[in-house]
Amino acid sequence: MMLEQQFALDRAYNTPATDYRRIAVAPLSGACGAEIRGVDLAGTLDDATVAEVRRALLDHLVVFFREQALTPARLAALARRFGELHVHPFAEGMAEHPEILVVRKAKTDRFNFGGEWHADVTWSETPPLGSILYAERVPAWGGDTLFANQYMAYDALSEGMQRMLSGLRAVHSAARVYAPTGYYAADEYQRMGGTQVRPSEQARREYVHPVVRTHPETGRRCLFVNASYTERFEGMTREESRPLLEYLFEHAVRAAFTCRFRWQTGSVAFWDNRCVLHNAINDYPGEERLLYRATVIGERPA
Ligand SMILES: [Fe+2]
C-alpha cells in the first residue's frame, strides 16, 4: 500500500466565481465539485442559466443539484441542452427513451454498475462531454459517488513524467467490461437485476486517445486514462504498459484530488467526463438504488 505522498498546491482548484447571476454555487471540496442552487431543472431553462451551469461545470468539474423532480423525458431534454445524447451499445436504455440508461442495483444484487474508478465510454471515437445522473431511489445511507480531478492529477506529476506522458497515446476498449469474457458476463453480474448489460464481441473494438488531453473548452491539460477501459500504451504490449498504467490509476485518484457526493432522492450530478474520474461505491447490501443517466457526446480527445 502506497503512502499518500505530500505535495503542495500552487493554485486553488475549486473556488467559485462571484459573478453568477442566475445560480448560486457552493464548492464541495478543495479539489472539485460544487452544489448549484436556485435552479429548477424540470422547467425550461433560459439560455443564460444554461450558460452559467456550463461555466460552473467547467470551473468545478462536477456540479450537483438537490430536490429536483425529473422524469426520464425531462432528464433527456435537460441533457440535450448540452449536446447530442449517446445511446449505450452494451447496456439497455429505457424502451421509450433508449438514450436514458437505467442504473439500478436491486436488493438482491451483489454487484453494482460503475463500481470502480473510470470515465464513461472512453471506448469510443468521441467520448462523452459529460453524464447527468438523477437519483430516483437511494439507500438511507451508503451508495455515495466519488469524483477525482484529473487536472490536479496531471499538475501533481513531476515535469519529467508530464513530458514523457505528453508524447504517449493509449488504447481504450470496453473489452474488460463488456466482452463475452468481460466481468459483466460473469454469473454474478448476469444476475444483476437492475442495469441490463449485453456483453458483445463488438466491445473488443479499440480506440486510441492521448494520455494527456487538452480540455477543448478550458484549454487546460489533464490526465486521460482509467482503470476500466485503458488497456495499454499505443505501440507497447499490455505487460510493458501495466506498471506505469497501474501507477497512473493509483495516482489519479489520490484523496486530495477527490470529492464525495451523498445522494438523496431528487439529487442530480452532472460531471465533465473529459477531466474527472468517478467511482460508485458499493456499500449498501440489501438496499435498492435506482438512478437514470443521460450521456452527452463529446469531441475527439486531442
Ligand atoms: Fe460511470
Describe the model:
By secondary structure, the chain is α+β, with helices and mostly antiparallel strands. It has one domain (24-296): 4-Layer Sandwich (Double-stranded beta-helix). It has seven helices and 15 strands. It has helices spanning 47-60, 72-80, 150-155, 159-166, 175-178, 187-190, 238-251; strands at residues 24-27, 34-37, 62-65, 100-105, 130-137, 145-149, 169-172, 207-210, 212-214, 221-223, 230-233, 258-261, 268-272, 276-280, 289-296. A seven-stranded mixed beta sheet has the order 1-2-3-13-5-15-4. Strands 12-6-14 form a three-stranded antiparallel beta sheet. Strand 1 (24-27) and strand 2 (34-37) form a beta hairpin. The chain is globular. The two termini are 33 Å apart. The mean pLDDT is 93.
Compact description:
With 302 residues, the protein is of the alpha+beta class.
Task: List key phrases describing it.
three-stranded antiparallel β-sheet; binds fe (ii) ion; alpha+beta; 20% helix; seven-stranded mixed β-sheet; single chain
